[in-house]
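All the exercises in this workshop are built on plain-text protein records. Sequence and backbone structure share a record, each on its own labelled line. The structure tokens are whole numbers drawn from a learned vocabulary of backbone shapes. The record below serves as our worked example for the rest of this section.
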Amino acid sequence: MGTIHPYETTNGRRYRVAYRKPDRSQGTKRGFRTKKQAELYLATIEVSKSQGDYIDPAAGRVTIDRYGTEWMRGLSHLKPSARRSIDSAWRTWVGPRWGKWPLVSIKHSDVKAWVSDISAERSATTTARAYGVLASILDSAVLDRRIHSNPARGVKLPRKVRARKVYLSHEKVELLAEEAGDFAALVYLLAYTGMRWGEASALRIRDVDLIRRRASIVDNAVAVGGQIVVGSPKTHRVRSVPFPKFVARLLTDQMQDKGPDNLLFGDGERHLALPHSRQGWFAQAVRRVQARDESFPRLTPHELRHTAASLSVAAGANVKAVQRMLGHASAAMTLDIYADLFDDDLDGVADALEAARAKALSGVA
């Protein structure tokens, strides 16, 4: 048990609590106006010690800058692209705002106001990323028993507005491939398999089986800080993606004079960089198509994944097949992203039930 000691100040008598921490070191708390307040505090300390819930007040006085820096060092398991976005959020938003604040001094209302300030000038994605870094740091502080609870949790974030997805028809894919010139095979592959750019650009000759018409997605090449970094696919899972016969013929041309270890696209040695959003070959091909067809939409190479999903569903693929082809973590994720593509299935269910009922009752008088 601890002890309570009175002492005199210029403002009158005050009380100091002395107690033993779980590690047997001495802990003190002073400034209580009444002995009862001191007794209640001491009782709280003793209960928390007996239940294993004690948190040393000194542990929470470490600053966000110091603790967050240590937290960042523990992110080595993340992919370089993910780590880079977290680094950016830390340097731009979290560090400058919260760096000098002790962990225990942050309040829920402070975080709420900060989120509101960011969302007023930046996108919902940027706001969520900055908030996520701070909240994760504070989550770690809770687990490390530096603070009792995370003051960031429960703050409402601005809702993300999903951009309208662009779906190309077979005819429009044809127009784009024509204008892409030497990159036609790559356009077809993206539009008919749903590969991510980094997955397609990382394909090697050995990854492509022309007989089975399957491509093994084992690597993903991503630009990080101007450098191409090759790692595992986004979900960390190797998958096999089918492609049509006409694409197989085009890929055969890409394989000419290349060995098994060479990259499928480009010169075989260097990974193709994602084309510039305005001046790159893809954007130029889109503009040339638009000059021929005013209804042709603006889109990026990544948005050809939507076309692959759309064309597959229209051809009769079920949600599980689309999930496996696109490399989503679950069928639920695929449905969440492409729910609009499966709307027609609802009509099919109703028609099937009608037919089944009619068949079942056909022999009933």
The first strand starts at residue 3 and ends at 9. Residues 305 and 312 are 11 Å apart (CA to CA).
